[in-house]
Amino acid sequence: MPPRRVITGRSQEPRRRYAEELRLLRTARGESLRELAKVVGWDASLFGKLESGATLGSPEVAEALDQHYGTPGLLLALWELAVGDPTQFKEQYRRYMALESEAVNLWHYGVSTVHGLLQTEAYAYEVLALGGAKGKELDQQVEARTGRRKVLDGEDAPPFRALLAEAVLRTPLQDAGAWREQLEYLLKVSEQPNITLQVLPQSAGLHGLVSTDLMFLRLLDGVTVAYAENAHRGELIEENASVERLQRAYDAMRDLALNPAESRKFILRMLEEVPCESST
Fold first, then answer.
1. Using an 8 Å Cβ cutoff, are 263 and 162 in contact?
2. Bridge-partner residues for 215, per DSSP?
3. How far apart are CA 19 and CA 50, in angstroms?
4. N or C end of the chain: which has fewer CB within 10 A?
5. CA pair distance 2, 45, nearest whole angstrom
6. Residue 85 has pLDDT above 70, yes or no
7. How many secondary structure helices (H) and strands (E) does the chain include?
8. Selection from 172, 135, 158, 137 nearest residue 275 by Cα
9. In Å, how far are 77, 95, 154, 193 from 84, measured between CA atoms?
10. DSSP state, 148?
């Protein structure tokens, strides 16, 4: 006789399973979200988002909840499974995109590439093609990316501060003409009253955001979230302490950057070095 299957009725999808366990443990205690927040020390809104699956929070939150509920290692293990789930990254990016369109203030640090909101069509084509997209799929991705730029246009467009590492401006496109167009576009958008563009020179040295492309979004309710990205994955960060730590690192780095006028001169120098003819 085959072994009897144990059916719990709980989700096997890591993110949902983590959210379900959090909700079940809290309701079994008879605690409200506010009571839980008072004991554990984070905002009640964070626990509500954790239980709805809107965010995963940080490992520190999972560990604190393990201690609170007397489930040593259980919630942290479920958190690790949810974070490692490949579908998690796509879900986080979709949520980030929705928040980006609603943000009332945006500030960014780019360590490797020009941010999507500042990319020309040619730049977007080359970057997205390197990710494996091609044909109709590539066309659709480029159209979607360049369409996002409208967020920064109009009288009600949010303020956007972009810090670009010097390496971004020293990593050209394959086609010199397309690269010239991208640099010219950066100069153009830097003239918009809602856009502040600064360059972080290599001479600034090491800093707290090395190897991390980072975007902060301040939302209508005053909450700030962050989206950190590298070549392989992205992470939406909503836990207050983590966001504040990243903001401090960003502020320190901003103080090392060239001011907007100096940054424009730097980009102009880069532009002067680009051949006038497209490479063939």
1. no
2. 108, 227
3. 6
4. N
5. 45
6. no
7. 12, 6
8. 172
9. 11, 17, 39, 41
10. G
Half-sphere exposure of 146 (CA within 13 A, CB side): 16
188 contact partners, CB below 8 Å, separation of at least 6: none
Q: Tell me: do 199 and 64 sit in the same domain.
A: no
Helix axes 14-29, 74-84, angle to 10 degrees: 150
Kindly give the pairing relationship between strand 105-110 and strand 213-218: antiparallel
The answer to whether the predicted template modeling score (pTM) of the entire model surpasses 0.90 is no
Which domain covers residue 53, as residue numbers?
Answer: 14-84
Is 129 inside any structural domain?
no
Closest Cα to residue 107, out of 254, 259, 264? 254
Is it the case that residue 5 has pLDDT exceeding 80?
Answer: no
Give me the amino acid identity at 78: L
- CATH code for the domain in which residue 187 is found: 3.30.870.10
